[in-house]
Design a protein that fits this description.
This protein has 288 residues and is of the alpha/beta class. It has a single domain, classed as Rossmann fold, CATH 3.40.50.150. Helix content is 36%, strand content 16%. It is built from 10 helices and 7 strands. It has a 7-stranded mixed beta sheet with strand order 3-2-1-4-5-7-6, with helices on both faces. Strand 2, helix 4 and strand 3 form a beta-alpha-beta unit. Helix 2 runs parallel beside helix 10 and helix 3 packs parallel to helix 4. The longest helix is centred in the first third of the chain and has 18 residues.
Length: 288
Amino acid sequence: MTVPSSPPPSSPLSIHGDRHFDGLADKFAASLYGGVRGELRLALLDRLLPEMLGLRGQPLLDVGGGLGQLSGWFAERGHPVTLAEPSAEMLERARETLLETSAERGITFVPAPLQALPEQAPGPWSLIACHAVLEWLGDPRAALATLAGLLAPGGQLSLMVFNRDALRFSNVVKGNLQKALDDRLEGKGLRRRLTPISPLTHAQIMTWSAELGLEVHEVAGIRVFHDYLRSPPQTDDDRERLLELEWRYCRVDPHWRLGRYLLYTLVRPGSSTPPASSTISSQNQEPL
């Protein structure tokens, strides 16, 4: 077995060819969660996750949990959470935020990349979340195989990936026609740029899931309209209208296929999981 050599000191990638985010926590927070697009992403997840998953307070493994928004959402709903994150800076930021709001809920923090989780957090897990992680990895197919191996029979994987087809469409809208024709869509992971190095297609997720024995139970698009607007909504009323448009069409074909992110519920066949209708009540709970 060949052991990967360490990258040069100047390399932005890990030994696995993955993009981590040490030194970029502020930019990451502002770019991915700041403004209307971040609000829409979290608001849609707040509505979609209880409908797309069978939630009964089971322990959650949050893979590549970043700043901890998703871990906090599950912790507020009674799930014991293990947050795994390879970036020391991101993990510390998540710890500071979550211990202020969820200290009594027993969140465990694991400083580890996805590839180390079979040793660091082997499970098997009945519930795993891996949101906006695979697109930053050098080998996303191998990563999905690792996640499948961590699932218990009947276990659910909430997977969200950056949509390559949406990235192509966005480049065309911006006038980057030759880039779209050449299919030069991946980022290089250089400097402070946040274009994913491995954007994925729906076809890839479907193929890989079938190869790994995972069943696709649900799919939705996150931000199917916002990222193509000529200008962001300027008033609270326009923001509310946009959210309702996003919500109305996020699971309607063909609109969901151009979501900036694609959100899946993947299940490892085995003992059955409760249907989404049995989810714990979200009444009087804090939004994501």
